[in-house]
Amino acid sequence: MASSSAAPKFTVRRRPEVLVAPAAPTPRELKRLSDFDDQVGLRFQIPIIHFYRRNEYMGSKDPVQVIREALAKALVPYYPFAGRLREHDGCKLAVDCTGEGVLFIEADADVGLEHFGDPILPPFPCLEELIFDVPGSSAIINAPLMLFQVTRLTCGGFILALRLNHTMADAQGLTQFLGAVAELARGAQAPSVLPVWKRELLEGRNHQHPELVHNKSDELVHNKSDEVPGSDTDTKASSNMLPLDNCQLRSFSFGPREIAAIRAQLPPHLQKRATKFDTIAGWLWKFRTVALAPHPDEVMELTVLVDARGRSTAAAGIPTGYYGNAFALPAAISTAGELCRNPLSYAVELVKKAKNQVDMEFMRSAADLFVLRRGQSAPITAGMYYLTDETKARFDDLDFGWGKPVYGGPAEAVGVPSLPWLASFLLASKNANGEDGIVIPICLPGPAMDRLVEEMTKLVRLSADVTLLHQPNVFPVKRSAL
Questions:
Q1: CB neighbours (10 Å) of residue 140?
Q2: N or C end of the chain: which has fewer CB within 10 A?
Q3: Are strands 158-165 and 45-52 parallel, antiparallel or unpaired?
Q4: Residues 124, 130: contact at Cβ < 8 Å?
Q5: How many CA atoms lie within 13 A of 204 on its CB side?
């Protein structure tokens, strides 16, 4: 990887970590995680970070004290977070609700908010100082399930950074919990959304007879070559894709003009039906493939994260307040040749089709598959790419009394640091006029990155010809090395 161009280092002074326990007695019980929570690919820690400006209306209130006290109160209804994970029944995870608490660190840094750039976006300098890895705390089993660090800044602002054991919750579930902490910090007597456990909703069926698992589960991840548009069932392509090492990191911005310019390339029916995510995801999948220049028969797979909340069939859906992992990962699949040759609408339609598969039957079949393949990791190929819309989690809405954060979201620029080219986040941002936009940090090898920048430059030029009533400023391409 190329060397970092981060800002100069700064000093963080930390007090010894403490455990924040629930503010009132909580039940002592063992609560099983769902088979969605229990999948091997979620046994890691999610780092999240928020930057807050000084707020004169808060007077002398200390964010450390305010957040710590609100956290203790929130852990009463959300008491499983204060417990510890155990393994039972052959690697099956369950929460031992011990009430021990979550780790909390109080800290001060010798820099102000301006040190982190404008706009504030990942990668962040000295991240390891802002989310300190307390020795032994990053284990999945028998360790605290969350770690909080509140770092005061010289400007009067502060940074709230935290780490979550992903088996306990997804981004939506974490935001729900943090929203409860924020409400209590602002003086509420109780959270407006009460937590719902009900992890049995996403348990696999036929635990005792995995051979009876519904065939649909295999369809979720196994797409035979005759199911991939344009593929040759008798010939396996020998990949000539660029080596996916020595990657560069650059952030691509999509403002109202860029999104309108992409929509203008779609047929009328798609202009009306395609969401902002569909539009950006289709464009990025197509032109990232063009930039990588793979063999025309290479299978390219765009996996998108879809929150299953609010999606139901005749059977009961996922209830309001559910904070476990409840996301699906449907995939849009095409050969590189078809993806590059066809108009943009081809990619956008495939993204929409993949997303529309997700319902409760899809989720239950996926849970069946996790049971059948318990302990196995999914294979990774060079043609895979994961895209997650973090703007849906609304980390940037969390107000602990100091207003909304300048930045709130993933602490790392890429989804899988060990494979930086594999995954990207859609992050909320604003242009110079304060209008909402999307920023996507992307890692690619140098030659591919140059080609993707060229395609983005064409889009920016095209966007200049798109007339919008409010005439917003164009989002530039921000370049930074990783």
A1: 16
A2: N
A3: antiparallel
A4: yes
A5: 26
Sign of the Cα torsion 339, 344, 350, 355 reads: positive
Nearest to 447 by CA among 300, 290, 237: 290
Cβ within 8 Å of residue 208, ≥6 positions away: none
CA distance 358 to 362: 6
DSSP calls for 203-238: PPS-TT-GGGS-THHHHHH---GGGSTT--TT----
Kindly list the distances between the CA atom of residue 396 and the CA atoms of 178, 185, 374, 428, 436, in Å, as whole numbers in the listed order. Answer: 11, 16, 35, 8, 12
What whole-number percentage of the chain has pLDDT above 70? 84
> For residue 132, how many other CB atoms are within 10 A of its CB?
19
* DSSP-based three-state secondary structure for 444: strand
**CA separation for the pair 346, 356 (Å, rounded):** 16
Q: How far is CA 134 from the centre of its chain?
A: 23
What letter would DSSP give residue 124?
-
Give 258-289 as a 3 state SS string. Answer: HHHHHHCCCCHHHHHHCCHHHHHHHHHHHHHH
Q: Is 239 left (phi over 0), alpha (psi -120 to 50) or beta?
A: beta
Omega prior to 119 cis, within 30 of 0: yes
Structure-block tokens of residue 124: 């962040």
- DSSP H or E segment with residue 119: none
Which of left, alpha, beta for 123 (phi over 0: left; psi -120 to 50: alpha)? beta
Q: pLDDT tens, position by position, for the chain (482 residues)? A: 333 344 568 999 999 999 999 999 999 999 999 999 998 889 999 999 999 999 999 999 999 999 999 999 999 999 999 999 999 877 789 999 999 999 999 999 999 999 998 889 999 989 999 999 999 999 999 999 999 999 999 999 999 999 999 999 999 999 999 999 999 999 999 999 999 999 999 988 765 444 443 443 344 444 433 445 444 433 333 455 666 778 899 999 999 999 999 999 999 999 999 999 999 999 999 999 999 999 999 999 999 999 998 765 534 589 999 999 999 999 999 999 999 999 999 999 999 999 998 988 888 888 888 888 776 777 788 899 999 999 989 999 999 999 999 999 999 998 888 889 999 999 998 766 677 889 999 999 999 999 999 999 999 888 876 544 333 333 333 433 33
Name the amino acid, one letter, at 58.
Answer: M
Rounded to two decimals, what is the model's pTM?
0.88
From the candidates 37, 166, 368, 396, give the one annotated as an active-site residue: 166
209 counts as catalytic? no
Q: Which of 108, 359, 397, 399 is catalytic?
A: 399
Q: Which of 90, 75, 361 is nearest to 201 (CA)?
A: 361
